[in-house]
């Protein structure tokens, strides 16, 4: 199933400017198709706006923008931080997003569930000898310069690390999340969000704002985890996390707080290192992919040897009967190579590959010829749009002396003069066929930069 763009259709703010570079991009392109990256971008944009250094501006009026989601379609769009009449795009009503967030947040703060969860938290922390200075609703004063303060639901100190625990029950208050992350980061403390529940799908947007910015880990506190904490004499909680293999399905396990990795600089606490595992997988795949061109070459030469007895008439039709030869290894591997673009409607360029491998090895490969020069006589008149690549290959692999040695009759020299004259008269006839550009770059990096226009090669 192909991923879909997460942007709304026809957004009011259709183009945005990246403040750092002045680069203008479409809103759809910036929002993209990766939900995890989008949630991290939402947080980064909101944080940058709070710090007064916005990441993105409206391309029309240069007012900072931030990302919001439509509740009906679950798609995203950019909204102005301020509507002042300077822009034709209208993205908000009379109440500011911050005002609406404050109303919702304050309305839920003293719900029954919220009060219960605060008490379960306190009971669980008190059960453990690892926590000291455990307080409910204690005002946390910031530095003298900013005179800021916050009042976390519960605060404690864990092995010298100040931690602010916040119960997350609200619907849309990204401002609160971003502002508190910044505050506790400046304080050298850790903001730790806990949930009443966290489902595989159907989650609220604000839950994803926390989850995707916390290394894809979330934590649940309940009456059950409180009871286990009292029994174990340790802070027990349910952890929910994604793995690169399981996402979007989530893994779940009851764990001790002592099993977590705490990173105040990133404002993250996690049981499973999603980002670390993803980076490890990428390194492994990069190493694996580095050997794929050599593996493809080995496979191709085997196929070419089997097809080397075909006549000219049979060559294109029968060399790979049926569909393109995408049976090399497996589809999962092919999906990460330029071969992902080839299917039954878009065949691999067998003649071009045979010609380039023939030049590289100095002998006919996959072509029913005895001498290397015969490859040139066959290829040049039949594939004019691949001639520039053939010429580049001759130069890179230094086959000029071989051609001269085999050109007993002088016919090759005459053919070269003929096609050079034709290239000057009708250069567009010889402009490179770019449909296979990625494939040639991948298999023959020695040929970079690849030639494209005939008039540039004479």
Write the layout of secondary structure elements.
Layout (H helix, E strand, L loop, with lengths): L14 E4 L5 E3 H5 L3 H16 L5 E3 L6 E5 L6 E5 L16 H13 L2 H15 L4 E6 L3 E2 L7 E2 L3 E5 L2 E8 L5 H13 L3 E6 L9 H7 L5 E4 L2 H10 L3 E6 L9 E6 L4 E3 L4 E3 L3 H17 L1 H16 L4 H7 L12 H4 L15 H12 L10 H11 L4 H10 L3 H7 L4 H15 L11 H7 L15
Parallel strand pairs: 10-11
Antiparallel strand pairs: 1-2, 1-3, 4-5, 6-9, 7-8, 9-10, 12-13, 13-14, 15-16
List keywords for this structure.
about 450 residues, alpha+beta, Trna Endonuclease, Chain: A, domain 1, 3 domains, four-stranded mixed sheet, three-stranded antiparallel sheet, 17 helices, about 15% strand
């Amino acid at each position: 199933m192909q991923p879909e763009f997460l942007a709304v259709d026809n957004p009011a703010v259709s183009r945005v400017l990246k403040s750092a570079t002045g680069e203008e991009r479409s809103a759809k392109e910036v929002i993209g198709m990766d939900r995890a990256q989008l949630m991290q971008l939402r947080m980064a944009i909101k944080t940058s706006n709070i710090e007064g250094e916005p990441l993105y501006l409206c391309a029309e009026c240069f007012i900072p923008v931030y990302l919001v989601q439509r509740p009906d379609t679950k798609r995203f769009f950019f909204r102005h931080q301020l509507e002042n009449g300077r822009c034709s795009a209208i993205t908000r009503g009379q109440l500011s997003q911050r005002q609406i967030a404050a109303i919702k947040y304050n309305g839920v703060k003293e719900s029954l569930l919220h009060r219960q969860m605060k008490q379960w938290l306190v009971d669980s922390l008190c059960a453990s000898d690892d926590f000291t200075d455990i307080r409910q609703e204690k005002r946390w004063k910031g530095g003298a310069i900013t005179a800021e303060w916050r009042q976390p639901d519960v605060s404690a100190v864990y092995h010298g690390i100040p931690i602010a625990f916040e119960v997350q029950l609200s619907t849309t208050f990204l401002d609160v999340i971003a502002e508190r992350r910044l505050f506790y980061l400046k304080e050298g403390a850790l903001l730790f969000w806990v949930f009443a529940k966290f489902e595989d799908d159907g989650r609220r947007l604000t839950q994803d704002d926390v989850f995707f910015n916390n290394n894809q880990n979330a934590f649940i506190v309940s009456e059950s985890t409180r009871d286990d904490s009292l029994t174990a004499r340790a802070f027990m909680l349910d952890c929910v996390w994604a793995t690169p293999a399981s996402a979007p399905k989530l893994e779940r396990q009851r764990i001790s707080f002592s099993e977590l990795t705490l990173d105040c600089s990133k404002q993250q606490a996690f049981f499973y290192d999603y980002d670390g595992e993803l980076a490890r997988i990428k390194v492994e795949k990069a190493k694996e992919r580095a050997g794929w061109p050599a593996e493809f070459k080995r496979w191709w030469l085997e196929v070419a040897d089997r097809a080397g007895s075909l006549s000219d008439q049979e060559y294109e039709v029968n060399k790979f009967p049926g569909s393109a030869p995408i049976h090399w290894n497996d589809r999962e591997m092919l999906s990460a190579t330029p071969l992902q673009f080839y299917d039954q409607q878009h065949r691999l360029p067998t003649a071009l590959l045979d010609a380039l491998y023939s030049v590289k090895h100095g002998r006919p490969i996959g072509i029913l010829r005895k001498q290397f020069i015969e490859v040139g006589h066959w290829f040049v008149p039949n594939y004019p749009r691949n001639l520039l690549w053939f010429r580049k290959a001759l130069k890179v692999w230094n086959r000029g002396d071989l051609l001269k040695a085999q050109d007993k009759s002088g016919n090759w020299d005459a053919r070269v003069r003929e096609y050079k004259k034709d290239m000057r008269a009708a250069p567009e006839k010889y402009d490179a066929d770019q449909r296979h550009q990625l494939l040639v770059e991948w298999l023959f990096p020695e040929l970079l930069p690849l030639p494209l226009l005939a008039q540039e090669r004479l």
